[in-house]
Design a protein that fits this description.
By secondary structure, the chain is of the alpha/beta class. The protein is 32% helix and 21% strand. The mean pLDDT is 89.
């Protein structure tokens, strides 16, 4: 893996996957406007997106539309 790629969230997630970690469930707290690479790196994992800000719900719903294995929650 290129050193520069490890300086992004997607690159770090790919590094973790390359080490063999394949979670069944991922919980992302503080989603805000997106979660770079999470759904692409682990497409078979159930991914729970949690953000307490109502204004960020449309961003979580957009992710849900693209990835049916995502569960969006607006909660604190």
């Amino acid at each position: 893996m290129d050193f520069d790629e490890r300086h992004s969230i997607r690159g770090v997630l790919r590094s973790v996957k390359a080490l063999g970690w394949e979670p069944a469930t991922v919980i992302d707290v503080g989603v805000a406007m997106g979660t770079e690479g999470l759904c692409e790196v682990w497409p078979s994992a159930t991914i729970c997106l949690i953000d307490p800000v109502e204004e960020n719900v449309p961003f979580m719903n957009q992710i849900k539309e693209k990835y049916p294995h995502v569960i969006p929650l607006c909660a604190a």
